[in-house]
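Note to self: keep these together.
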Amino acid sequence: MKFEFSDNMKNIKSSEIRELLKYIHVPGMISFGGGLPNPESFPGEELKNILDDIMENYASSALQYGQTEGLPELKEQLAGYLKRDENINVNPENIMLTTGSQQALYALPLIFANEGDYVITEAPTYVGMLSSLNVNRIRSVSVGLDDMGMKTDELEERLKTMKSMGIKPKFIYTIPTFQNPAGYTMTLDRRKHLLELAEQYNVPVIEDNPYGDLRYSGTKLPTLKSLDTNDMVTYLGTFSKIMAPGLRTGFTVSQPEVLGEFNKLKQSLDLATDSLSQYIAYEYIRKGIIYKQIPKTIELYRRKRDIMLEALDDEMTDATWSRPDGGMFLWVKLSKNMDALKMLKRAINNKVAYVTGSAFYHNNPEMNTMRLNFTYSSDDDLKEGVRRLAKTVKDEKESL
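Structure:
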């Protein structure tokens, strides 16, 4: 039989990052491509004990269907955690549990925008948002980044221009802290400026904060949500980086009218986030394990970041890279005449993988860029992988 597929599927491209994950299992390959947390950061023994407690005390509920908006007990714990961790004052009814934060990245554009509408994103930005915009046929206007995060002066110009053309963006999407893919962190002045612009032009903000707890140096900055006094910000969080990604538990903080629309959409997506994972997250916070585990993860990842940065300093020439205070990624810029996508085949042959920077742009990609993950590889592989990458860059440049 010849199948006929919908036009929607034509807008969905396979994720370059997901495709690169297969190289992790190639013998001898060192992959900096995926955004994988290190298994050493998983609190295995603690989760085993939590599971034992759940099976003894909550089995009938944990193995049953749950409420679409999420486990009430977990939302209570999350409200306390967000107040303690990010100084976000939130009521439990302003929290929705999601199947990973990716579910929110798919749902929110569908909630806020129609086909053909415009939104504003950073350039580069997270591929999970780009894939959602593509499948929902939503257009974007890009705002550039530097080592102080989104260029809010440029954002202001974009908003002015769009207003003059009669176009109102449906939201501004940003990862202000340890941005993916670039690793940059938005300064406090720019955070305040962004919120001023959002209020002035009446544009909602989606703040994605999957890495905020993973700070290895520098001073902690307030989230946009904690600075928000006019209910402009919808905030996304996840347990994937601070507990375990396989449990697929995320959360969205927003106003009741936004979550009401999300609730209706989520009912058609998965009915509810799985109950067992929510009970695990509930006990993870309630027992205080989260506050003991995060410092361990920070210690592990700080060491790995420093190893990769030192290796780049020693090995790489004719390139620049970000020096993030936290998160999981570095952003590398090669000479302008180089193409990281064309170079990838040479890199694979040299048994090292990365994600090409062009994957993180909706429009006008910078082809001489790449993203490197430093959290997953062993210490020795970080050093050897950078050596192989530096050789790849050198050989590619000489071949031009």
